[in-house]
Write a structure and sequence with these properties.
By secondary structure, this protein is an alpha/beta fold. It has one domain (2-279): TIM Barrel (Alpha-Beta Barrel). It is built from 11 helices and 8 strands. The protein has helices at 2-5, 21-35, 53-66, 82-94, 120-131, 152-165, 178-190, 207-217, 223-231, 236-256, 271-279, and strands spanning 10-15, 41-44, 70-76, 99-103, 136-141, 169-174, 197-201, 261-265. It is globular, with a radius of gyration of 18 Å. The protein starts with a helix and ends in a 15-residue tail after the last helix.
Length: 294
């Protein structure tokens, strides 16, 4: 973990693009609340095959206009052409966006060919070729390994390709076992990969939803956590209280171990992430990492 301890802390929050006026109004309130703790950036997701492309752009522009926080749109290459990605990059340059989260993305239902980009490292290399150092590029990392990878070692090599293609930092898939993160970072250090790898954090507020997300993305819910959550049934208050304790303890372990920040998957809610933030005593902490292009 020595490689991670040298990086200044970067705390961030992720949103998905709202599709209704009510959703937009709610996100404006949530982002205003979270902006008060001065995170390093907000990120905005991008649907499979670009299904929320316009909503992502609108959300990024709205967040940039309403807050003083850096905004990093997700950009996914599956199902995209080089020209469509080039056009999107130029749009973000015109909007003075200098931060991206570059992902392979999931194959949309019914699609059999990935398109002109097969992997995230192809996308990162293309962004660097087209725009040089304009963008600070985040990529994904999988401490419990990507569900489609053939082996942990192969997954590490895939991550290495993204770094060598020009990634500046990484955000991990969420997890609940801190050892998974520590072992992943140790593996990266053995490959001489030198970049901040920020843990992704999923607050626990709804067991059914969490189980569905975790089954889809391959994130393990440890048996003791799963059984305890199941035992609460429809008692949402107990689920939230237990989840807050579990995730707070996880974050404390990660930060004490040298993790260079935390990336919260907010699901467009402020309260669960802010409860953990306050438990950690981070209210007065200002994220320090900035893009090398600033």
């Amino acid at each position: 973990m020595d490689s991670q301890k040298k990086f200044p802390p970067a705390f961030s929050f992720e949103f998905f693009p709202p599709k209704t006026p009510e959703g937009i109004e709610k996100l404006n309130a949530v982002s205003a609340t979270l902006a008060k703790v001065e995170p390093c950036f907000f990120s905005v997701t991008f649907g499979a095959g670009g299904s929320t492309r316009e909503h992502t752009l609108e959300t990024v522009v709205e967040l940039k206009h309403n807050t003083s926080i850096d905004v990093a749109p997700h950009i996914s290459c599956i199902g995209s052409t080089q020209q469509s990605i080039r056009d999107l990059l130029n749009t973000y340059i015109d909007k003075d966006i200098r931060h991206l989260v570059a992902l392979r993305g999931d194959m949309p239902s019914g699609m059999h060919e990935a398109g002109e980009f097969r992997f995230a490292n192809d996308l990162v290399a293309f962004i660097r070729k087209e725009t040089g150092d304009h963008f600070f590029i985040e990529v994904a990392a999988y401490p419990e390994y990507h569900p489609q990878s053939s082996s942990p070692q192969q997954d590490l090599l895939n991550f290495k390709r993204k770094v060598e293609a020009g990634a500046d930092a990484a955000l991990t898939q969420y997890f609940f076992n801190p050892d998974a993160y520590f072992y992943f970072v140790d593996g990266c250090e053995k490959l001489a990969l030198d970049l901040p790898i920020v843990p992704g954090i999923m607050p626990i507020t709804n067991y059914t939803q969490l189980a569905r997300f975790s089954d889809a993305c391959g994130a393990e819910i440890p048996r003791w956590i799963r059984r305890r959550l199941e035992s609460f049934g429809d008692d949402t208050a107990s689920i939230r209280e237990f989840g807050e304790d579990v995730v707070t303890n996880l974050c404390q372990t990660l930060l004490r171990g040298g993790a260079p920040g935390l990336h919260f998957y907010t699901l467009n809610k402020s309260e669960p992430s802010m409860a953990i933030w306050n438990n950690l005593g981070l209210s007065a902490v200002k994220s320090e990492r900035v893009s090398h292009t600033s």
